[in-house]
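Supplementary Methods, section 5.1.

A reviewer requested that the exact input to the structure prediction be made available. We therefore reproduce it here, unchanged from the version used in the analyses.
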Amino acid sequence: MPSEIYGGGHVGRFANKRKLQREMFMSFPSALLRLKAGDTPDTALAYAMRTDTKLGYAAIMAAAAATASTDCPCCTVRNALPPEHRHDVLRHERRGRGVMVDINPDSVVGKQVARLLGTDAARPLMVAEAGMALGFANCCRILASPDKEDVQVSVEDQVRWQINIDC
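The structure derived from this sequence is encoded token-by-token as follows.
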């Protein structure tokens, strides 16, 4: 039975141990398949970000959408996720024209957000997808804003925010 990837989790039987190990430890397993199919690295990674980390992608895009809304950013992000993951959205704050949304860092959603915003390769692609500046603080905070200054994290911010969630 082939493996199935949903939300970063793996189910099913694997034909061989090497395939199991490769898929378990890769952040974006479908990127390699897309490269082999002839995609450019950027296109392959962007595709993999949307498919291999669907929950994190949805949370980030919803946080970006919340910047243009007067609705509660937490509600916007929660509504973008399946019901069983909505409790992973913990709280929000508005910052300038942007929003900050905290995700449980131990959850599937939180781990996917970390993959998408915590790497130098993936974050610029997410910025392009969202059409605005994005940031990531500690291990759980999505920052999104049309103004780049709103997603800058100072040393004071980093220290102050650490007491909020035990990452």
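The longest strand covers residues 89-95. These observations are discussed further in the main text.
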